[in-house]
Amino acid sequence: MSSGDEAPQPRPVLWVVAAVSVVAALLLLLLATGKPASERATDGRILGRVAPLIEGPTIDNGWYDIDQLRGQWVVVNFFSTTCVPCIREHPELVKFDQRHAPTGDASVVSISFDDSADAVIEFFADNGGDWPVLTENTGSVAVNYGVTAVPESYLVAPSGIVAAKLVGGVTADDLDGQMARLTQEASS
Amino acid sequence: MNRQMFSWLGVLVVVGSMLVFASVDDGGPATNAERAYDLAKDFACPVCHGQSVAQSDVVVARNIRREIRVWVDEGQSDDFIREQLVDRFGEDIDYTPSSEGITSLVWILPVVAGAVALGGLIVVFRRWRVDGDVSATAEDEELVAAAREDQ
After folding, report:
1. Which residues of chain A have a CB within 8 Å of the CB of B101?
2. Strands A152-156 and A162-167, how do they pair?
């Protein structure tokens, strides 16, 4: 029998190269289709959990404790006086607060993100807003909520559970829409 | 023991010593501030590209640094701090990936790749050794014997 009739020898090296190539391709696919780390960090990990404690002095020398507000919706708003989207959303928060003040079914609390108390007091004097604002130890609160940038708001349900996360500014109608949707979901 | 074996033994001793020196504990951080800084280096700034919490000066990094310091001062363990930050900002914040789930591949794949490479080297070396074996045929021995007789 001539050598040309012999069955081809198995090529283990080729199989190894093929297997490694497939694994490398799958890893590349995984990396290419995944969300960037910066976006994954802003995912709402806190949703569905009990709202982290927000307690402390307010800029009008009052005392705030979110746990005292069980039974109503709370909009926890992280903001900065120097952030343009925060300035833009502020009138919407004023509108939302005024809309719900008579019924008392929803309220707002603002947490400053790296601002001095004086700057925050001046901001509210200029732009309105008559709800509790915290400026002390707010870094810890921001870490507990997983806040990476402002404006960022969390809608805390009457049960005390964080029901929604809103990134990049809110409107009064958006907030009411979210509350209506979440109420309907909870009742169905 | 031949010279080649001595060479391999030397390589083994050098590599082993380096591994031991690299893994020896340096006594750990001396103060809470040092421990907090060491921990901050282990976490990625959630909104930065390629900067750790220790390096970045954005607000969220500063907040996390402050919170780490609070936990350290409270006497919390490194594992507790790691869990808290991963819980709030996700697995991506941790430069030391978990050994569970899909991230375990980060630990497993290099070991598998190393084992495969080592196996491959052993196979190749053995094949070379087999190919390199030369044995004299009867014809060769006759030639040598004839040459000796001629001398």
Report:
1. none
2. antiparallel
